[in-house]
Amino acid sequence: MTVQILLLLAGLALIVYGADFLVDGASSVARKVGISEFVIGLTIVGMGTSAPEMVVSFIGAIQGKADVAVGNIVGSNIFNTLLILGLSAMILPMSISRSNIRRDIPINIGVVLLLILLGMKATIGYGAENGLTRLDGGILLAAFIIYIWSCFKFDKKEDSEGSSDKEIGTAKAILLIIGGLAGLIIGGRLFVDSATTLATMLGVSEKFVAITILAGGTSLPELATCVVAAAKKKGQLALGNIIGSNIFNILLILGGSALINPLSFADLDYVDIGVLLLSSLMILGSYFFFRKKVIDRGDGAIMFLIWGAYMAYLFINL
User: Fold this and answer.
1) Cα–Cα 20 to 30 A to 21, which of 11, 127, 226, 307?
2) What is the rounded distance in angstroms from the CA atom of residue 64 to the CA atom of residue 53?
3) What is the DSSP letter of 202?
4) In sequence order, which residues have a C-beta less than 8 Å from that of residue 207 and are 6 or more positions away?
């Protein structure tokens, strides 16, 4: 057990340093090529920090463990929005731009609704059982390709935030991104492996491990990246990372997992799906509530409390 704890701490260290390198490198690239920091967060950072989820879910799909593949993504998206975005907002209130509200946030909600439409067939009333077929996986992957194309096609420089950071050379910025992503992926893998082993030693169920420990562990890159970005006053990068990661998790990772092996949603209940949908709607609510156009510390605290209540529900229903 001592070895597993040491590996856990090593993974956390890699995640923290990797996040710092990634934020600096990605922000520098955004300024140099004229792409907004939001879109950099949405694509490069979002995809990079979703790599641990991809590894865990694809392995789960290959092994025929739908609970692992699906529970990891549902749990990760809830963790990303309610805990990570909530904590980031408490560190630095995040402004929501016009393009965020017109495009990015509605797409995030639409992707969750698409997942519910395709995955909850029996519940909705047009299928024999809940889950994703290979055709559903193909639909999700096609939507992912269209989404990535639209991110760059309709990007506007108005989303970028001012920065007084020291200028970083292009080669160094690229090395920071690569090194940061490597640290996040390796650190995330170390953490997940050691945490899962520890959980097995303690006799925790597979579903609970997937939605809590695996989901939380694979979301640590997003947590570290967003907290560092918020501390560096790069709120759009943090917001883009969360929205991008959530969309990638559903369209790319669940889509790809379903192509590998059809996924059953049999073990998901109404609370799991309801909290997933609520988490995506809360970002939109932050914009319209009192028309403040910002995710402030109060919103962040509410998100954190909802996440805590959901975790309590899972513990009670072990």
Assistant:
1) 307
2) 16
3) T
4) 67, 71, 267
Instruction: Write the pLDDT tens digit of every residue in 43-84.
Output: 777 767 777 778 778 888 888 888 888 988 999 999 999 999
CB of 180 within 8 A of CB of 22? yes
* Phi, psi dihedral angles at 127 (to 5 degrees): -150, 165
Distance CA 160, CA 158 (A): 5
Structure tokens at 301: 């605290």
Question: Which conformational region is residue 289 in: left (phi greater than 0), alpha (psi within -120 to 50 degrees), or beta?
Answer: beta
The torsion angle over the Cα atoms of residues 94, 147, 149 and 83, rounded to 10 degrees, is 30
List C-alpha distances in Å: 280 to 146, 177, 246.
20, 28, 9
Amino acid at 158: E
Helix (H, G, I), strand (E, B) or coil at 21: helix
Distance (Å, whole) CA 53 – CA 302: 26
Burial class of residue 203 (count of CB atoms within 10 Å of its CB; 0-12, 13-18, 19+): exposed
pLDDT, tens only, 80-129: 999 999 998 898 888 887 777 888 899 999 999 999 999 998 888 787 78
How many residues are present in the chain? Answer: 318
Between the two ends of the chain, the Cα-to-Cα distance in Å is 24
